[in-house]
Each structure stands twice: as structure tokens, then as C-alpha cells.
Amino acid sequence: MRVGKIFKQGRHMTESSFVNHMRANASRRVPTWELLLILSLPPSSPTARGVPTDYPAIAMSSSDLENPDQLVTSTNPDHPANLIPSLCAKFWTLGWVTGTGGGCSIREDDLVYIAPSGVQKELMKPADIYVLSLAAQEASLKNRTYLRSPPAYKPSQCTPLFLAAFTRRGAGCCIHTHSHWAVLVTLLLESAPGDGKLFEMNNIEQIKGFGRGFQKQGNLGYHDTLRIPVIENTAHEEDLTEFLEAAMDRYPDTYAVLVRRHGVYVWGDNVHKAKTQCESLDYLFQLAVEMKQLGIPWISDIPVVKPTRI
């Protein structure tokens, strides 16, 4: 039985449903970690950062697992351990994760699946994926512990930035690319006035691909302005975390943060939204570079046109 399914069942499991669960699984030996989850799961609760999420606040350790590899073993193509290699292979063809750069992480309830550091993204396999429990981490998200760590690789330096999207925004997926269009946009913004750099664009159809903001319903419209903050790059990826968090605080409705001369982080409520927003953003970045070459401003004043027929 998949861990995610256990989490979903455990939130509302009564004594009678627990008995039924055990009867249904009488033919197999129920591992200790599964019993702990079922008996101990509390209702969903806020994280230490104060953002409501849908995962239970129970700390799960690798000692609760008889075989940690079961976390990344599934025939379901939509399982995070299968999705991450598939997505990264696609991103590699787009030039987003060249030379082992970039990454992707998916949250399923309390479990977080993360692409490793230093692996060629087009060759990644489910067995290469790291897994951790959000509830088992310190509030600072430092000194992280993993439920599963593949021996051949190192944890991604992007991990604390992914976790910031999960804990601060309740995201289900976060993608980091080294798209050259994203980098070019940050270069174009270097000469912009002020300390806080900001990518802004309106009156472009693809803007509709973005949600209105954190805990808001619906998507942006054609005439709305998309705003993506830019943060300074650092020598080490993990050091970007506090700057990304500050950008989230300053622009609470953003679904992405650009990193100067580096790339972009994009997140969404689920894999579908994170992926489509990342695709939409890359399209807009390319368009922005070409508009700049043609002398066309990113912000324009176009009147709203309404139909005359009712």
C-alpha cells in the first residue's frame, strides 16, 4: 500500500475503520511504520511557518521503514518518484536543466520527493530520488533528515528553497530551471532603477496561465499585470533561501522568483499547475527579450474592449 494512501486514510480513521483496515490486510504483514501512521495521525495542522497545509503533523523516521526503497517503487506513472525523472527528462530537452543544473520536487501529503544533486537530468531514475518527511524537519528547515537517501548522490542544494514553497505556500510541486530566457530577463533588469528588481508584463494572452495569487481564486486576466520579483544570486544555492522567502513575503501573490544571472523557481498547488506556469513563464520571458530588442515595452496601456452584442 502506498504511503500517501495511508496518510489520507489515517486522518479520519476511527476504531472500527482501523479494524476493517487490518482485516482487509490480514493476508500480509503490516509493517510497524504503517501501524504508527494509522494509530497516531492527528488532524491536518499548520506548519511551524503558520501556513495551512493538507499533510498531518507526525514525524516519520527512516527507522519506521523496513525498506525505504518502497517509497520510490511504484508502477503508477503519476507517483512522484516516477514523475520527477519524467519531468526532468522533458525539461532537459527544453534546455532548462542543462549540465545537471536545475531540479524538481513534489510534495505528496507529508512526504517530499526531491531530485538529487549532480545527476544528469535526462538519465535520472526513480531509484535516484530523495524522500523526506516535512513533519520531521526543524522549523528552520536546516539539519534535514531523510527517509530515503540514494548512496550514489548528494541531496540537492535546492532543497530548502523547495521546502520554502511547500511550507510557506502549501505548494505541491516546485521547479527550478536554468532557462536562458529567464537569465536574459534578469540581465535586462540589471539597469532598472531601485534595489528591488521586478519583472512586470501585461496585456499578453499567456498571462492567463497564472493564478491570481496565494489563497485566491481564479487566474490572472489579459489586462492584469504579472509581477515576478528578482533576487540576487549567491555563491551557494542554499544561501538563496532567505532571499527567496523575503521575496515571497514582499510579493505574496507571486508563483515564481527569478534569480539574477542564474534561473527561476516556479511553484504551484500541484504538478500540473507548477509545470504549466513554468511553461507559460518561459514563453513570456522569451517574448520579453524579443520585445526589448524591438523596442516594445512590457507594460502597455490598452483599453478594455467589450462586445456590443448581448
TrEMBL record:
Catalysed reaction equations from the record: 5-(methylsulfanyl)-D-ribulose 1-phosphate = 5-methylsulfanyl-2,3-dioxopentyl phosphate + H2O
Binding-site residues, Zn(2+): H176, H178, H262
Keywords assigned by UniProt, alphabetized: Amino-acid biosynthesis, Cytoplasm, Lyase, Metal-binding, Methionine biosynthesis, Zinc
Domain Class II aldolase/adducin N-terminal per the UniProt entry, residue ranges: 82-289
Binding positions (substrate): C158
Pathway: Amino-acid biosynthesis; L-methionine biosynthesis via salvage pathway; L-methionine from S-methyl-5-thio-alpha-D-ribose 1-phosphate: step 2/6
Highest taxon above the source species: Eukaryota
Localization in the cell: Cytoplasm
Family annotation (Pfam families): Aldolase_II
InterPro entries, per database record: Aldolase_II/adducin_N, Aldolase_II/adducin_N_sf, MethylthioRu-1-P_deHdtase_MtnB, Salvage_MtnB_euk
Cofactor entry: Zn(2+)
Active site: E205 (proton donor/acceptor)
Gene Ontology molecular function: methylthioribulose 1-phosphate dehydratase activity; zinc ion binding
Function: Catalyzes the dehydration of methylthioribulose-1-phosphate (MTRu-1-P) into 2,3-diketo-5-methylthiopentyl-1-phosphate (DK-MTP-1-P).
Family named by the database record: Belongs to the aldolase class II family. MtnB subfamily.
PANTHER family, per database record: METHYLTHIORIBULOSE-1-PHOSPHATE DEHYDRATASE
Protein known as: Methylthioribulose-1-phosphate dehydratase
